[in-house]
């Protein structure tokens, strides 16, 4: 598993430029967009690596420390670092990788980082815990539906006897997941909707990096997990694994940039730049999934390219916020409250600021033109 606070390795020297670890001269050139190698006036050297030609950076990039969990949910964030997209919009970003959402949240609370890539449930628990945070730039998700969970899967060993068409086959079995994480939420919701008594299933708390081995060695009968681990288990175990469920609208899962409200209010220009960079990175990732997946292998410890490229097909990179987003997140918040995981039923809209992404849509419409329209079934914001 990637160790907490792992910074990008200097051995990837061409890509480290994207993280801002370059000379002042290179920073100025990239930030001012003087390269123009793609023929577009003002296009930066970083944009020619993979970002679109939208946006213009200031002459003095703003340093921002960003925290994230090392998994596939933030692949577009990794792409923004490696492709120089943040520099293009005037941000000198430094990415720190943490073991889980709780560690990321603590880093934000302590001021170690100014922004984090956080799942919606992490935003809720952080908010309910007394830290006023704002979710403003989705990295992963689909704004056209309330429940986007294609990146979450339930995989059983073939010898476990668990089958998708017989929910009772879960009774008496040991299921591994990271308790409190998205896989845990998915498992509990799946079993409840299938009419399986949770008291008759033993849930084993497993760190994400330990789940494959635990299933291989028979320590558990099945794993419920997010990407890339579901795909990795299926690929590596082959006929020894059985995909029981993927997606299905059981949970609402989204990941986006989050900052403390005080930082958002005191640095709106920085938040605008971060938001535009994420919209750009999402657009590039949608158009270049295999290349984005390869970038992810630089950040997710031990991730094979073949797994990353299969995994990315389960992910949606829609940076918009919609009424459907709020609807799905509120359903998750109520579950957390009902389970007594939080002491307040947080209104998802109160933890969001849609104005930054709306401004990005107005300024850079080309970054959103390939996305499906928000349906009328999504409530208005």
Structure description:
With 381 residues, the protein is α/β, with parallel strands linked by helices. The chain folds into two domains: 250 residues, D-Maltodextrin-Binding Protein, domain 2 (3-Layer(aba) Sandwich); 95 residues, D-Maltodextrin-Binding Protein, domain 2 (3-Layer(aba) Sandwich). The protein has a five-stranded mixed sheet with strand order 2-1-3-10-4, sandwiched between helices. Helix 8 links the parallel strand 6 and strand 7.
Order of secondary-structure elements: HHHEHHEHEHEEEHEHEHEEHHHHHH
Largest sheet at a glance?
5 strands, mixed
Q: Main sheet: which strands, in order across?
A: 2-1-3-10-4
Specify Rg, calculated over alpha carbons.
20 Å
State the total count of DSSP E strands: 10
Distance between the termini: 39 Å
Percent of residues in helices: 25-40%
The dominant shape is: globular
The structure class reads alpha/beta
Q: At CATH's second level, what is the architecture of the largest domain? A: 3-Layer(aba) Sandwich
Q: pLDDT average, as an integer?
A: 86
Unreliable stretches covering 5 or more consecutive residues:
1-58
The named CATH superfamily of the largest domain: Periplasmic binding protein-like II
Q: In the CATH hierarchy, what is the class of the largest domain?
A: Alpha Beta
Family: Belongs to the bacterial solute-binding protein SsuA/TauA family.
Region (Disordered): 36-59
Signal peptide: 1-24
Keywords: Signal
């Amino acid at each position: 598993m990637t160790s907490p606070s792992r910074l990008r390795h200097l051995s990837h020297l061409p890509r480290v430029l994207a993280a801002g670890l370059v000379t002042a001269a290179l920073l100025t050139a990239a930030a001012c967009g003087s390269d123009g190698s793609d023929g577009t006036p003002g296009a930066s050297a970083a944009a020619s690596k993979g970002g679109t030609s939208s946006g213009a950076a200031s002459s003095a990039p703003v340093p921002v420390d960003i925290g994230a969990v090392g998994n596939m949910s933030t692949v577009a964030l990794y792409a923004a670092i490696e492709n120089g997209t943040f520099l293009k919009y005037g941000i000198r970003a430094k990415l720190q990788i943490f073991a889980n959402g709780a560690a990321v949240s603590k880093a934000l609370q302590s001021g170690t980082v100014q922004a984090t890539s956080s799942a919606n449930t992490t935003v809720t628990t952080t908010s309910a815990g007394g830290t006023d945070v704002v979710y403003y730039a989705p990295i992963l998700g689909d704004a056209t539906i309330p429940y986007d969970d294609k990146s979450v899967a339930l995989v059983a060993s073939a010898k476990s006897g668990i089958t998708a068409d017989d929910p009772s086959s879960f009774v008496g079995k040991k299921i591994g997941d990271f308790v409190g994480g998205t896989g845990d939420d998915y498992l509990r919701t799946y079993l409840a909707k299938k009419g399986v008594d949770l008291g008759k299933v033993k849930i084993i708390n497993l760190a994400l990096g330990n789940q494959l081995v635990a299933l291989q060695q028979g320590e558990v009968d099945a794993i419920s997990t997010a990407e890339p681990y579901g795909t990795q288990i299926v690929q590596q175990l082959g006929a020894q694994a059985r995909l029981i469920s993927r997606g299905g609208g059981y949970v609402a899962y989204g990941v986006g940039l989050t900052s403390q409200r005080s930082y958002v209010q005191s640095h709106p220009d920085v938040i605008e730049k971060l938001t535009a960079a994420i919209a750009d990175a999402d657009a590039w990732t949608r158009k270049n999934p295999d290349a984005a997946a390869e970038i992810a292998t630089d950040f997710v410890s031990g991730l094979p390219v073949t797994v990353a490229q299969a995994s990315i097909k389960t992910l949606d990179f829609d940076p918009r916020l919609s009424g459907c987003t709020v609807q799905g997140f509120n359903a998750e918040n109520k579950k957390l409250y009902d389970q007594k995981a939080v002491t307040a039923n947080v209104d998802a809209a109160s933890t969001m600021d849609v104005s930054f992404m709306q401004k990005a849509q107005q300024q850079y419409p080309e970054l959103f033109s390939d996305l499906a329209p928000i349906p009328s079934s999504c409530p208005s914001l």
